[in-house]
Design a protein that fits this description.
PyrdxlP-dep_Trfase, kynurenine-oxoglutarate transaminase activity, Aminotransferase_I/II_large, 7-stranded mixed sheet, PyrdxlP-dep_Trfase_major, 13 strands, 4-stranded antiparallel sheet, Aspartate Aminotransferase, domain 2, transferase, globular, alpha/beta
């Protein structure tokens, strides 16, 4: 029987690698979830909410305390002013915010230009809305955006520019000049911009995260997406958000009410407390991850990988070509048995995931002892 609608769920590389990790007792340096739990004061705030009986449906846009905290965060960090009443919507992680925004803004036949390689849900969300994703390639070794190429990708069918900065998987952080060029094009072509900023607080020395929504002419056409999972090591709570002008946020709410309606009531109170953490928390968070980044990148370089040092996120892209592997997929599929380590082939983040590429992504969101164990296993196995 020929069934209409989206294709059935696919077995992703992340599912495959998790199974291989279990089978071979591998150190998982591929998938982006920390081994540690979140800060104690954040966990305790969620526990207190549960004990206080805050376990039923929250308001669809999110509990008022969290919406206030998100609006204050945008104001204090970036000088933006979303209204907590109608300029903020809490979502089931950033993934729902991305899907809801594509379903809200993309019509059948529309095109969405997205930075490639890209988080795998981007393409699926665009296609669920009936649109087509148009890759804006970031090429090695610099993984900087080609701004001249971007202008040629925009057509009369382009509806949305989907940005991701800090960028997963390459770690690129768009600088002011690059953001200004994107903003000029968006204004000239009257485009909407959806920007995924979930790694906004994980940016290392020498780089700075700046939201495109704050540039001239951009506030009314930009939806900014954030998440608590990466910053506070609570990825399983799935608390994300979208902020911006009421006209855009209302469209996202109109979709969200038929996706999850609402979720994670006690966790929302926990994240409201988390966002109120002082600057010393964020400074310590970045400093800790900078040390982990340096440990992993130096170790991988010593093993012979070409290492592209990230400006942000907790991922590092490498090339296995110097080790004799032009196919990162084959390299990663054999790695758990050969070395007892899991990594992710970057080719799964491209519009054509079947095309072999030598790039491989590792994560350093693991304790130092785990990173050291992974490197030792790679040294012995390779």
């Amino acid at each position: 029987m020929d069934l209409p609608g989206p294709a059935k769920p696919q077995t992703t590389i992340f599912t495959v690698m998790s199974a291989l990790a279990q089978r071979h007792g591998a150190v998982n340096l591929g998938q982006g979830f920390p081994d540690e739990s979140g800060p104690e004061h954040v966990v305790e705030a969620a526990v207190a909410a549960m004990r206080d009986g805050r376990n039923q449906y929250p308001p669809m846009p999110g509990v008022p305390e969290l919406r206030e905290a998100i609006a204050a965060h945008q104001r204090d960090w970036y000088g933006l002013a979303p209204s907590p009443e109608d300029g903020v919507v809490v979502t089931a992680g950033a993934t729902e915010a991305i899907a809801a925004s594509m379903l809200a803004f993309v019509r059948p036949g529309d095109e969405v230009v997205a930075m490639e390689p890209f988080y795998d849900s981007y393409k699926a969300a665009v296609e669920l809305a009936g649109g087509t994703i148009v890759p804006w390639r970031l090429d090695a070794p610099g993984f900087r955006p080609d701004l001249a190429r971007l202008g040629g990708l925009v057509t009369e069918r382009t509806r949305v520019l989907l940005l991701n900065t800090p960028h997963n998987p390459t770690g690129t952080v768009l600088d002011r000049a690059e953001l200004e060029a994107v903003a000029r094009l968006a204004v000239e072509r009257d485009l909407l911009v959806v920007t995924d900023e979930v790694y906004e607080h994980l940016v290392f020395a020498g780089s700075r995260h700046e939201p495109v929504a704050g540039l001239p002419g951009m506030w009314d056409r930009t939806l900014s997406i954030g998440s608590a999972g990466k910053t506070f090591s609570v990825t399983g709570w799935k608390i994300g958000w979208a902020t911006g002008p009421a006209a855009l946020v209302d469209r996202v709410k109109g979709v969200k009410q038929y996706l999850t309606f609402a979720s994670g009531t006690p966790f929302q109170y926990g994240i409201a407390a988390a966002l109120g953490s002082g600057r010393e928390f964020y400074d310590g968070f970045v400093a800790d991850y900078a040390e982990r980044r340096d440990l992993l990148t130096a170790g991988l370089a010593a093993l012979g990988f070409t290492v592209y040092e990230p400006q942000g996120t907790y991922f590092v892209t490498t090339s296995a070509a110097p080790l004799g592997y032009e196919d990162g997929m084959a390299f990663c599929l054999g790695l758990p048995e050969r070395c007892g380590v899991v990594a992710i082939p970057n080719q799964v983040f491209y519009a054509d995931p079947a095309a072999a590429r030598p790039e491989v992504r590792f994560t350093f969101c693991k304790p130092r002892a785990v990173l050291e164990e992974g490197l030792e296993r790679l040294r012995k196995g390779l």
